[in-house]
Specification:
This protein has 319 residues and is α/β, with parallel strands linked by helices. The protein contains 14 helices and nine strands. The longest helix is centred in the last third of the chain and has 17 residues.
């Protein structure tokens, strides 16, 4: 780092809490509720710090919704939950204009998307038209209803869940929507000891009922600003470009430029968690496993997006 960079980092640390310390405090709070998923909790927090959205995919009952709630309740911002169903309409998410008899004008009644953290529960149960109502908010931080644009609260994060069973009762997420999720995570079943610990905790009152915020929205904004300032040197940017290029050449559909940006931002947040103010290749490689695979389509059932990412990480040299 240059002297100027060091000076800037020092001013940032003096002005606001170290974002790594903030992430660790939130992780500890979430782990009062969620057992055995430390890595996944860290991945969600790096997505929050990197201004991204998260998709949790797994079988029912492994704690996807509870994990999302625990993260949201660790901050003092607004939290809204949307239960996606086949009959859910786009206006049920974005809001609707209602005619006011007194003023003889239309008043906008915002939907649940107007919150700092939005939980889209079982998002793949709603048809694509309804799912697409999140696209503008996820990408641009705004919602347009009847030609009028409304800003969503900032910071803004969508945490969505989807189950991997009952395929005849669910809809595939459009690629345009999948690509807007920085990360796609899988929880899996807990280890026996973790499940036993979890059962002990939920006897009586569930710990989620007693979970209190441990960070403010101002803390999160400051942490995001600090993460955005993390140094990404040209060789690291080139490495990400070559990884993305490998997926495009080796698959039917590869990682988009949006995906490359998401990987860099996630790596910046990972660097913060590791106590650095600059990104190293290890940060890229750690985050690539959850940022890139869901953006890749191979065109064959014998080869998955994870296979392509594995090949990319094994083939593309760090220069």
């Amino acid at each position: 780092m240059t002297d100027a960079d060091t000076s800037q980092a020092g001013r940032r640390t003096d002005a606001a809490e170290d974002p790594g310390a903030l992430a660790r405090r939130v992780a500890e709070n979430v782990e009062r509720v969620i057992v055995g998923h430390h890595d996944e909790i860290e991945h969600i927090l790096t997505a929050l710090l990197g201004r991204g959205h998260v998709l949790l995919e797994d079988v029912p009952g492994v704690g996807k919704t509870m994990l999302a709630r625990a993260v949201a309740q660790s901050f003092d911002g607004t939290f809204k939950r949307v239960q996606f169903t086949p009959d859910l309409l786009p206006s049920d998410i974005t809001g609707v204009n209602v005619f006011n008899q007194k003023t003889q004008e239309f008043d906008f009644r915002p939907g649940p998307v107007f919150a700092n953290v939005v939980l889209g529960d079982e998002i793949n149960r709603a048809p694509p038209k309804t799912q697409s109502s999140l696209l503008e908010a996820m990408e641009e931080g705004q919602v347009t209803v009847d030609g009028t644009t409304h800003e969503v609260p900032q910071p803004f994060t969508v945490i969505a869940t989807q189950n991997t069973v009952e395929h005849d009762r669910t809809y595939d997420l459009p690629m345009a929507e999948l690509d807007r999720f920085m990360k796609k995570l899988h929880l899996g079943y807990p280890e026996p000891d973790d499940e036993s610990d979890m059962l002990e905790r939920v006897v009586g009152n569930h710990p989620i009922e007693e979970l209190s915020p441990v960070a403010t929205l101002a803390d999160l904004r400051d942490a995001r600003d600090a993460v955005a300032d993390i140094t990404v040197e040209e060789p690291i940017r080139d490495y990400v470009t070559r990884l993305a290029g490998f997926t495009r050449e080796g698959a039917e559909l590869g990682v988009s430029p949006r995906g490359s940006i998401a990987l860099l931002r996630a790596a910046q947040a990972r660097a913060v968690l590791n106590g650095r103010d600059y990104v190293v290749p290890d940060d890229i490689q750690t985050e690539a496993w959850v940022v890139m695979p869901h953006r890749v389509r191979t065109g064959t059932p014998d080869r998955t997006g994870q296979d392509v990412v594995r090949e990319a990480l094994n083939t593309v040299a760090v220069e």
